[in-house]
Known about the structure:
By secondary structure, the chain is of the alpha+beta class. The chain has helices spanning 8-20, 26-37, 48-60, 74-80, 114-127, 165-171, 175-181, 202-222, 241-245, 282-286; strands at 103-107, 140-145, 151-159, 185-193, 228-234, 249-253, 271-277. α8 (202-222) links the parallel β4 and β5. α2 crosses α3. It is globular, with a radius of gyration of 20 Å.
Amino acid sequence: MQGRQLNGADIAMIRGLLAEHPDWGRSRRSVELCCRWEWRNAQGRLKDMAARPLLLKLERSGHLRLPKRRGPSPNGQRNRLVPVVAHATEPIGGALRDLRPLSVSIVAPGSGDPAEAGLFHGLLARYHYLGHRNTVGENLRYLVRDRHGRPGACALFGSAAWKCADRDAFLGWERAARQRNLQGLINNTRFLVLPWVVVPPLASHVLGLIARRIRADWQTKYGHSLQALETFVDRDRFQGTCSRAANWRRLGATRGRTRNDREHCLRAAVKDVYLSPLVKDFRRELCA
């Protein structure tokens, strides 16, 4: 779970922690669990945001029982109450050269410009067909503006899918190699060109700009490198044109199931699977 192999001793330790401190909140329990395991990322930070879903998964699988929540989830409240940030919606068209050079900036909620973070969140929540929820785990947010400072696109990258049959076959991933190296692959979970921007080459151009810088950005933020990017394109809505134009490789398609489909009865949209290598020897590094 969450990239960790758990055994009976681990489960017993967690049960003991819960029994000894029933008054602790979820954040305190997650931090303490990481301290006991010395569970840290490449930069030495505790992985408490990974410990929280791990505890929830253990509860769902019947291994333990967590104390009841003390109140509504703060993330749930934030997701329901996305503030509307003022932004221009005048049509943007013409040739790509008239918008260049584009600026690609990292949006850092909590430590950067709160107005930029609010704008990014609000644009995705309002104009992306999947909306936008708070992201758990390693992630990067990019806001793209044209030469006049007008927002044109948003992109969000986060954790790669734990399993994907066609992707894993293409990479030559067995289970152990995937567990070791999944952090070297990240998913473009949201990509949005704003609806009033009609510049056909813009989407693939933005994907190319991000691909050329994201390894350095990720290394700076998280202290480990990336070898490739992936994305899943809903084939009922899109044809993957901008992904192919940006030289992403189509590997196959999903099976129309969700990660929680234990009984093979939950159906989801079939999505085409695309991958963009960031280094020449991406297969060798991801299978090491």
